[in-house]
Hints:
The longest helix has 24 residues, at about 110-135. This protein is mostly helical. The protein has seven helices and no strands.
Amino acid sequence: MSGQVLTKLSAGRSTFTPIMFPYFLGAGAGLPLGLWLLPSINLVMFKLLVGTFLVAWCPVMLFGKTMPAIRGGGRPADCLVGLIGRAMAGLGGLSGPVPAFWTSLKGLDKRTQRDVIQNFNLVILATTLAAILRPELSEKTCCR
């Protein structure tokens, strides 16, 4: 989270725009889902899936300029991406990869992508940390 704060301060002014709201709307249900799954997830499988996703993501990003932008999905898809990002934050602090991948595939300009990712990560990681530090929540979900 400290990296997100430093990036936010050093990258200049970023703004909240209406395009971000579906991501945060979807994220509302993601944290409880991630914390609920945390004690029962197979750690080796989770690492394998996330690692495979990130390895596959690199060539996609390399050739991203030549790929056609995804126009379908709209706001419901943005909500789903927010939910997945928030669930992954609860599982392992990995809120950024799915929204970053999605905003790239949508063909958003770099400034908008940066605004969405920086604001999403900062808010999601801060609230996830706060939720994990709440003893009554941690006992019910993480320490069954």
